[in-house]
Amino acid sequence: MLCPRVVFITGANRGLGLEFVRQFLKLGNPPDHLFATCRDPERAEELKILKKEDDRIQIIKLDVTSQTDIDAAARQVEDRVGDRGLNLLINNAGMTRKRQYVGNLNRDHLLEQFDTNVIGPLLVTQSLMPLLLRAASLYNEPDSCNKAAIVNISSILGSIAENKSGGMYGYRPSKAAMNMVTKSLHEELKNKGILVAALHPGWVRTGIGGPEATLSPEESIKDCLNVLSKLSTEKSGCLLSNNGDKIEW
């Protein structure tokens, strides 16, 4: 059963991140601390409503492209949880630019996507690593998302093997890079009690997926939580689909 005690989610003000918050609170044994982060908490109206209904939610300002925000967020989590550490980090915040084809590419837009989709999540992970290691040291049990885990929300669009249509020259390479970060973190942490996985949530009706996508956020996150409930060392270091199958890099 999925029941991490301390959870940290980036990009939690809308879309998949907001739905992660909703569904974690509905678990049979919800987290004691659910850190929901976003760039502008004042404008995160739906998240603020959830916070009023459940004080286990802690809303934190976090722009993943700001080291100042990253450091401040890590301090807030440590002040709140202390020696308990952090059980589950979900690097969900991401972005894309539309109309990414040769002839319409812009350096700033490409760099923006890499900063948000790769560098930001990696630096968030770095800042929270002491808390993840602390949590991992407390549990004498098999590795799981209840113990200590890093889950990077990626995409099948970052798979080189599955690229049959080209295009998306900022988003695809940035997600491919996130997949490599996932694999590297796995190799570095596999003997320290921390699982690491990249997770493709399916084609979802969000700001990135668009209105024609096949899954609602509710359906996608229900699937994703099922995958996380079963995550083990066997599939750590892999890119997984929302049904738990491995996707080729």
UniProtKB/TrEMBL annotation:
Which keywords describe this protein according to UniProt? NADP, Oxidoreductase
Kindly give the CDD domains that the UniProt entry links to this protein: carb_red_sniffer_like_SDR_c
Which Gene Ontology molecular-function terms are recorded? oxidoreductase activity
Please tell me one Gene Ontology term that the record gives under cellular component: cytoplasm
Q: Return the InterPro entries for the record.
A: Fungal_SecMetab_SDRs, NAD(P)-bd_dom_sf, SDR_fam
Which domain of life does this protein belong to? Answer: Eukaryota
Tell me any Pfam family this protein matches. Answer: adh_short
Q: What is the similarity comment for this entry?
A: Belongs to the short-chain dehydrogenases/reductases (SDR) family.
UniProt-recorded name of the protein: C-factor
Species annotation: Magallana gigas (Pacific oyster)
